[in-house]
């Protein structure tokens, strides 16, 4: 294998001459655009609520729908990455999911809007492909950082969406369209972006540094066949899934409810509420990357157990920040506490996927899919809290904060470097060697 066909050991941010770095940039950009399709509706919900006459319970159901479809999709997408390849998988996902994004504007009843939100939710599976593809393209010493940057810059789309979609809406209204027409027309923009990304992904990326699955010798996959039981009986996989439920699950939930929370509790108008909610997502420009960088550094000295402890700390502090946010009585304190818990939440996301690729080198896609699905299960469960007529948004945030602290303690006592029944690696170096030798 020539050097160009090996995973990169260094991120060369401005070098597009290698397929690894082209894939790096196209992957995070595509994931970024997926958030426009996935959550483009969220900052427009004050208008949509009025237009469709939605109750709090119905809005909660749409939030649940937006994240629940992703659960099964992420599990299936993880296996497709292992067998069909990330390039074809991502391209197909983008083409299919652009359809409900374009057509959601046809909704005129709660029921049809709910179904479109459910269909659009499948686009959330894009995260698994993003992390899988980055894991393939970069060597173990930098894998956590690469995963965190692509995931973080992609998640940044959730924040930018909250800022940009109200502006697009306002521009359309400025051309003389009614509010009811404007939110529908606004969704054409993210649908178009998904089609553009589908072209870029298919044209300029490959499945591995050595080429596409159909073009290379896949001896490794023949020698080491995927073992579903091995993954499902590994406690570490489920521990990381729980952790992701409280970090990424909270992130996508906040993307869905933040604008409404600021409008209803602090009297902010829709445009400014979208901007404030966007600040939360904007933290991804550096915060998730920090989590991956810190995890890679501590991993060199303390192995997987060190990464586990780091993740536990991030979750506990995230939980404390959420409790602070839930009890904020003024807009200033709400913004300050939001930025505080957002920092540790997003670093937890990065630290999690600095661990995930090392759990099972033969089933990277499947493990990434299960952990990623955990994030959406968390988001779905949180949706029920925000749906309840008996629980305020503030109380819901506080309960989630307590859960985050509890899961952080679970992660702290989980042994990530184990061997035996749970099929773990005794030494982190063994895992790294296996991954470095493998093309996929």
TrEMBL record:
Keyword list (alphabetical) reads:
Cell membrane, Membrane, Nitrate assimilation, Transmembrane, Transmembrane helix, Transport
Among InterPro entries, the record links this protein to:
MFS, MFS_dom, MFS_trans_sf, NO3_transporter, NO3_transporter_NarK/NarU-like
Presence of the UniProt keyword 4Fe-4S in the record = no
Outline the extent of the Major facilitator superfamily (MFS) profile domain.
Answer: 23-419
> Where in the cell does this protein reside?
Cell membrane; Membrane
The protein's topology relative to the membrane is: Multi-pass membrane protein
What sections of the protein cross the membrane?
A: 21-39, 59-77, 89-108, 114-132, 153-177, 183-202, 235-254, 274-296, 308-326, 332-352, 364-385, 397-418
**Which Pfam family, an example, fits this chain?**
MFS_1
On the tree of life, the source organism's domain of life is Bacteria
Chief place of localization: membrane
* Family to which the UniProt record says this protein belongs: Belongs to the major facilitator superfamily. Nitrate/nitrite porter (TC 2.A.1.8) family.
For this entry, the protein name equals: Nitrate/nitrite transporter
